[in-house]
Every structure is written in structure tokens, then in C-alpha cells.
Amino acid sequence: MSGPKIPLAGVIGSPIAHSKSPLLHGTWLRKMGLPGHYVPMDVAPEDFEQVLRTLPKAGFVGVNVTVPHKEAAIRLADVVTDRATLIGAANTLIFLEDGRIHADNTDGYGFIENLRQNAPDWDANAGPAAVLGAGGAARAVLASLLDAGVPEIFLSNRTRVRAEALQSDFGTKIKVVDWVQAGNMLEDSATVVNTTSLGMVGQQELRVPLDGLQKGALVTDLVYNPLQTRLLREAEEMGCVTVDGLGMLIHQAVPGFERWFGQRPVVDADIRAVLLR
Ligand code: ATR
Fold it and tell me: Which ranges carry the Shikimate dehydrogenase substrate binding N-terminal domain (predicted)?
């Protein structure tokens, strides 16, 4: 073999067939004319560590990790960014030349970049935020909203104890609201985020009374299939600014791609269209 090494990267999860990451990275590689490959890997939890230790020797420069490996990835990493530590999970690993594994979590970054790109007038400081859901995605959203300067966050989840657990991790700016009263917290909120899986294809709709929502509030949904959820449709009808979740998926991939393949990809209508095909 001769010539420069072709960088390899990929995504490890289980199941992995549904992942849009290979299409996303593969399209960017081709469009930008860069050498490299990005492959999906279905790996069971008991094999995860061995696979991770083998990949750098096989020419991999890093990987994305998804369910169920995001927490294990943090434990196995040698260097962990502050935001990944705060979220307690990693989605982007870089295999350093000295053999160490660097772990980052770019979900919160992707969430904020999506708002900045699609709602440029959004101001984190404009008022409290309301977050629905308290799973893994909510952790990334809370961390990034606080980092962006949101003064206070109302947090509501069907299972209240999960919201309370996030409150004890993230501090007194988080106020827990009962799930049955989730509609009330929207009245004072400048930013509203659905991080639950409700509204996703095959799931029930998210039904929360929006009557108190302020005109001009920003409403965003992490669900991107369908692109326009009931929440976004109703919020738009009420004159709110709405942002769908597809951009978060795309933006969270940018830091890893840039690090592995050497150039920063562009997030535009073309790449959105590819992912919607
Ligand atoms: P993710 O990592 O995508 O956040 P998760 O950790 O499984 O996934 O969290 C899913 C979120 O959707 C949770 O907030 C969950 O509420 P519970 O903590 O009460 O389970 C929420 N969710 C899922 N199905 C729901 C339903 N039918 N009604 C209300 N909330 C639901």
C-alpha cells in the first residue's frame, strides 16, 4: 500500500440501520470531494469496548456513538469535554494519535446552532424556557440553554422524578412543573422545547394546551419525523416562530466531520433535502 491514508469514521449503535449519519457524512464527503469513508456498525454492548480499542489500529480517526453506548463511551474515554461530562453521555469520539480517546457531546451544540440558523432573532436572555421531557435529549438541551444564557427553565415530564433528578444535577435555575400542568408553564416562556418522543411517527401526539403561549415565542421540537409536528403546526398558527428538529441532527454532526475529515461542512437546504428523501 502507498499514498496518503484514507480516514475512516462511522457510527456505532444497536440497532443502527435507521441511522441517518452514514447518509449525512457520506453526502458531505462526496460533495466536498474529500477522501474518507463513514460506516454504520451494529455492535452489542458486550463487544463495545473491544471494537472501540480495535478501530484506531484499523485506520479509524473517530466515531459517533449512539444508543445504547453513549454512557459507556464516556467511561472508556481518556479525555472528556466539560459539556459531555455535564450531559453524562458522549456522541462524538476522536482517536488521538497518542492512543487516547477524546469524548465530546455535540447534541447541545447542534440544538443551539439549529436555533441560531433558523431563528436568527432568537434571544436566549429574552425570558424563561419551557422544556418538555427529561430523558437523554433533555439533558443536552438543558445544558446548552443554560450555557446560552437562559435565565430560568421550567421542566415538565410525565415521570416527575426524572425531572427532579435533572433539577438536582443542573441546579436552581430549573423549576419542575407537574406534567398535567405543563400548559401553564408556557405562558411565561420565551422558548418552548419538546424533547419527548411524542409526535414522532408511530407515537402518540404531544397534547399540551398552547392557549397561553406568547406570540413571538420560539417553539422547537426535537422530533424531525414528521418535520412539522402537531406542536409546531399549532404554534405557527398562533404566530410563534417555529424550528423543526432536522437541523439539530445535521448541526450536531459538524464538529466530528470537521475533525475527522479536515474541512467544515455546510448546513444548507441541499443537505436537508438529502436527509428527507
Ligand atoms: P431520549 O434520549 O430521546 O430523550 P428517553 O431517555 O427514552 O429518550 O426519553 C424519552 C422522553 O419522552 C421522556 O421524557 C419520556 O417520559 P418518561 O420519562 O415519563 O418516560 C417521554 N415520553 C415518551 N413517551 C411518552 C408518553 N407516552 N407520554 C409522555 N411522555 C413520554
Answer: 11-93
Q: Do the interacting molecules here have an ipTM over 0.95?
A: yes
CATH code assigned at 204: 3.40.50.720
| Binding residue ranges for shikimate | 19-21, 66, 91, 107, 224, 252
Residues within 6 Å of ligand 1 by CB: 133-138, 157-159, 162, 195-198, 204
Q: Please report the atom of ligand 1 found closest to the CA of residue 197.
A: 12
CA of 196 to the centre of ligand 1 (A): 5
Catalytic one of 31, 70, 173, 215: 70
Q: Are 93 and 62 in contact (CB under 8 A)?
A: yes
Cell of 90: 458522549
* Over residues 6-16, mean pLDDT: 98
Catalytic, 70? Answer yes
Nearest CA to ligand 1 atom 30: 158
Closest residue by CA, ligand 1 atom 9: 135
Given the C-alpha cell 448541526, which residue does it identify? 251
Provide the 3-class DSSP secondary structure of residue 172.
Answer: coil
pLDDT, tens digit, 9 for 90 and up, residues 34-73: 999 999 999 999 999 999 999 999 999 999 999 999 999 9
> Could you tell me the residue range of the domain that residue 213 belongs to?
108-244
- Counting atoms of ligand 1 from 1, which one is nearest the CA of 195? 4
Domain CATH for 56: 3.40.50.10860
For residue 244, give the C-alpha cell: 423543526
C-alpha 25 chain-centroid distance: 16
